[in-house]
Amino acid sequence: MTNTAFSQLDAGPNDTINPGVPVNLTATYGNPGIPILLGDDVVAGPFPIGFSFRFFGKNFTVFYVGANGWMSFIPNPNSSGERDPKPVPNTDSKYPKYVIMGPWIDLAPDSLDTYVFYLSSGDAPNRQLVVMWCQVPMFSNPKNACRDSVATFQVILHEGTNTIEDQILTKKSCDIWFNNRATLGVENGDGSIGFAVPGRNNTSWTASKEGWLYTPVSVDSFAIASIPFHLQPMIPGNKIVYNWYEWSKQISTEQTITVSPNETTWYYVYLDLCSGIVLKDSVLVFVRKPVPNAFTPNGDGLNDYFRIFGTPPENITKYNFRIFNRWGQMIFSTTNIEDGWDGKLNGQYCPAGIYAWEIFYEDSKKTRITNRGTVMLIR
C-alpha cells in the first residue's frame, strides 16, 4: 500500500484472488464523531470529556461548546448570542470564561445541519478529547457574502499532561464582518488571566494547516508553541466524501465497494475531509490465473485440494462453491471460500476424471455473479 498524505486513511490489505472472485474493499478513517447540533450563536452542553482535565488549577469532567468556535468548562449562559470576538483577558461577564478559543470567530452554522463533533478516545492515562468544527460558514451581513469562507479546526485535550492543541485546517477571511477579527487563546475563570497566540488576539488573520500547543507551566500560566499540523482522525458526519478509482476510472463514492477483477488491478481511494483536505491510499488486488484445472488428492500433501483462491476470507461476499460429476450430481458444496474439495464423496474417493465446478456470488449491491469451469481429478 502507498499513502501520499496521512497514515490514518487505510484502503485495507492487499488481496490475492482467482479471476472474478468478488472482494470487499473498505476505506477506514478514524471513528465517527458524536454530533452536536448548534444554531447561530448557540451554547450547548454539558458533554463528557471522558477523563479529568485540569485547566487553570481546576479539574473538569464535562465541557460546553459555543457555535462561534470556542469550548469551555462551565455553562457560560450569558455568552449565548455573543458573537463579537474580544481580546483575552476580558473580565466582562457576557463573554465566556474557563474557555479555549480555537478560534473564537463569528460563525454561521445552519441549525438544520451539523458542523460540530466530538470524540473521546485512547486508553488511560493517555486519553484525548477532540472537538471539531468542520466546514462551518463564517457569518456576514449581507447574510451569504462569506458563505464560502469556511472554518475547519480541532481543539484537542490531552489527559495527564493537560496540554491543549489547536489544529487549524482552514480559517478563511471575511473582511466585511468584524473586520475579520478572531481570537485564538485561553482564559481563566474570571477573565483576569488569558493567553493568546501571538498576532491572534482579536486581530484580522487567516490560517491554513497550522498547529498550536498550549502547555501549562503553572496554575495560572501557559506556554504557547507552534507545532506541526496534524488533524486527529475523526469522521465528521456527512462532511467526509470517499472516491474510489479503478486505475484512473472513478467507480464509486461509497466507503465500501465490491470489485471482482479478472486481472491484477490497483484501486485508489481519495478521502475529501470537510472540503479542505484530501487523503489518499491504494490497495492491490492480485489476480492469480488461472483457476487450477487439475489436482491430485492422494494424501501426499501436494495439490490434495481443489479450491478457489480469495483472501482474506472476510473480504469475500456471499459465496457458494459446488462440484458436479459427469452425470450432473452435486458431490460437494461449501459457502466458505477457505474450504476446498478433497476429491471425496461421503468419505469415499471419487474416481479419476473430469468434474464440473460452479461458483456463485452475490455482492453488497445484490449483483449476482456465476463462474463455471472443469477440473481434472488425477489418481
Describe the structure in your own words.
The chain is mainly β and 379 residues long. It has three domains: 63 residues, Immunoglobulin-like (Sandwich), CATH 2.60.40.10; 202 residues, no CATH class; 84 residues, Immunoglobulin-like. A seven-stranded antiparallel β-sheet has the order 4-9-10-11-12-15-16, with no helix packed on it. The protein is elongated.
Record keyword descriptors for this entry.
about 375 residues, mainly beta, Immunoglobulin-like, 3 domains, seven-stranded antiparallel β-sheet, six-stranded mixed β-sheet, about 0% helix, elongated
Short description:
The chain has 379 residues and is mainly β.
Radius of gyration: 29 Å
Instruction: Please report which band the strand proportion falls in: under 5%, 5-15%, 15-25%, 25-35%, 35-45% or over 45%.
Output: over 45%
The total of beta strands comes to: 30
Query: How far do the termini sit from each other?
Result: 42 Å
Write the layout of secondary structure elements.
Layout: E1 15-17, E2 23-26, E3 31-32, E4 34-36, E5 43-55, E6 58-66, E7 70-72, E8 99-104, E9 116-121, E10 128-137, E11 150-158, E12 164-171, E13 181-187, E14 194-204, E15 207-218, E16 221-227, E17 234-235, E18 240-246, E19 249-252, E20 256-259, E21 265-273, E22 277-287, E23 294-295, E24 310-311, E25 318-324, E26 330-334, E27 344-345, E28 348-349, E29 353-362, E30 368-377
Parallel strand pairs: 1-22, 3-17, 23-30
Antiparallel strand pairs: 1-24, 2-20, 4-9, 5-6, 6-7, 7-8, 8-13, 9-10, 10-11, 11-12, 12-15, 13-14, 15-16, 18-19, 18-21, 21-22, 25-26, 25-29, 27-28, 29-30
